[in-house]
Structures are given as C-alpha cells and as structure tokens.
Write a structure and sequence with these properties.
single chain; mainly alpha; 7 helices; 3 strands; rod-shaped
Length: 195
C-alpha cells in the first residue's frame, strides 16, 4: 500500500466493469463515503505517487469536503480495516512495503469527480463514470434500507396491541376445545325398532 509501489493495471474491462466492484472499495470515514488514493490509483491505472503529485499540484481544486485530511483516529480505523498493515514501523529490509510511508488521501464523491479533471485521460473518464455510478448505487441502497426501516417501525406500532388480543382468542379457543364437565344424556333421534 506504499505510495511508491508500482500498481499494475488490471486487464481492460475488468477494473471498472461494474459499480459493484467499486462499491466494495468505498469506506465510510467520519460519516462520509470515501475512496482511498491507493484504490483510485489502481482503478485509474497510475502509480499512487503520480496521483498524489497531481493532487498536490492542483490542491486548490480539492477543498476539505473533497479530500479529507486523516488524523490518528482515522489511521487507526484504516489499519484495523486493512489488517495487512502493522502499527509499528520496522526498519529491516525484509519488512519493506508493510507500512504506508505517507498519509492516505481519502477522496469524497466530489473529490473523485474533481480528480478526473486533474488526471485527464480516457481511462480516467471511464473509471470516473463507473465510480459515480457506484456512489449512486450506494445512495439508492441506503435509501432503500431507510424506507424498509420506516416500514418495519410502522408495522411494529400497528401490531403493538395485537399480542393481548391474540392471547384472548387462544383463551376462548381453549374453552371451546375443553371437554364439558357434565353433558345431559340426549335421546337418540331416528327410527327405533321395538323389540
């Protein structure tokens, strides 16, 4: 996940084939849905370092609501989400590449839209369209969940008094099914031959 590592681009048509692939990369950070620079670099087919340089050269295009500056809590959260990173830096050569050298850049939906104008390539345009569709799909999904939650709450309110009524019905049914204690004998109806 280090910024200087070269990330190979996936085969054509697989990196941004569907919004579902991109939706799995979206992280909620400080209550906002964001995409991390390393994931975006992989989607755009560029190095993380090149992506960050382009953002730094055009920093005025990325206000705080487009690009979140992560703090220590954010870094702990990201490390817990991506368990491949360890928390303590190690200086030995065999442990190389296990720690992010620089802070990640979490881009909001608006930041991703602005990023495509900074990168200016055909692939950036196609990937950006797929990313926007992923954000829209996620918003629809969240709206569906909110509507479902409202319907469940309404159902719970309308059925609040039903439990007592159902118990009353069962009590009446038990009385009807119980054997009567004394039933007077009845005369048989029908033809009786005299013997």
């Amino acid at each position: 996940m280090g910024p200087t590592r070269r990330i190979s681009a996936p085969p054509a048509g697989t990196a941004h084939s569907g919004a579902g692939d991109i939706t799995s990369l979206i992280v909620v950070l400080r209550g906002q849905r964001v995409l991390l620079d390393s994931d975006l670099a992989r989607l755009y087919g560029v190095q993380v370092k090149a992506l960050k340089q382009a953002v730094r050269r055009n920093r005025a295009r990325f206000p705080d609501d487009f690009l979140i500056e992560p703090d220590e809590d954010d870094l702990r959260f990201l490390r817990s989400r991506f368990v491949t990173l360890e928390t303590a830096p190690v200086v030995s050569a065999d442990r190389r590449g296990q720690h992010a050298k620089y802070l990640p850049f979490p881009f909001t939906e608006q930041g991703v839209a602005m990023l495509s104008s900074v990168l200016r390539s055909e692939r950036a345009i196609l990937v950006n369209i797929a990313i926007m569709r992923a954000f829209v799909q996620m918003r629809r999904l969240l709206a569906t969940h909110a509507e479902l939650a409202r319907k469940i709450e309404a159902l719970e309110r309308s059925s609040a008094g039903h439990d007592a009524r159902i118990l009353e019905i069962f009590a009446v049914l038990r009385k009807l099914l119980a054997e009567p204690a004394s039933v007077p004998p009845r005369h048989a109806i029908g033809f009786r031959p005299s013997a």
